[in-house]
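hey m, so remember when u said the tokens were messed up on ur end? i reran from scratch. heres the input so u can diff it against urs
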Amino acid sequence: MASIYTAEALSTGAGRNGHVRTSEGTVDLDMAAPKEMGGSGAGANPEMLFAAGYAACFHSALLGLARRDKLDLGDTTVGASVGIGPDDAGGFGLSVHLEVVIPDLPHDRAQALADEAHTVCPYSNATRGNIEVTVSVSDD
């Protein structure tokens, strides 16, 4: 694959309890493990950043398909929930649930468009077969 853009970030300190900064400084955050994982919860964590990135990327894929199909979707949203938990191999794994809201399309058509977005979104393509990802359409 020929990259058209490369993002760079550096983690310093203690990983989940350290600091992350992108090369251009747009993202510059203190990190903290969530309380549920024994941390303070007083900072960002990798799952938050992954959820934000996946939601934005999937939303762009959805809107790109709408432009291709000349659809006016109105005011759309995409929410991403990223879960982390122990896996069967003694490590940890992730799961993702994407909730898409397209109020100006009938539910069946909105779900079909969301399902198609799941085939073109780079995050979906990167995670396919690696983690459980569900995509649902909500009417509100």
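this time it looks ok to me. The radius of gyration is 17 Å. if urs says something different then somethings off w ur setup not the seq
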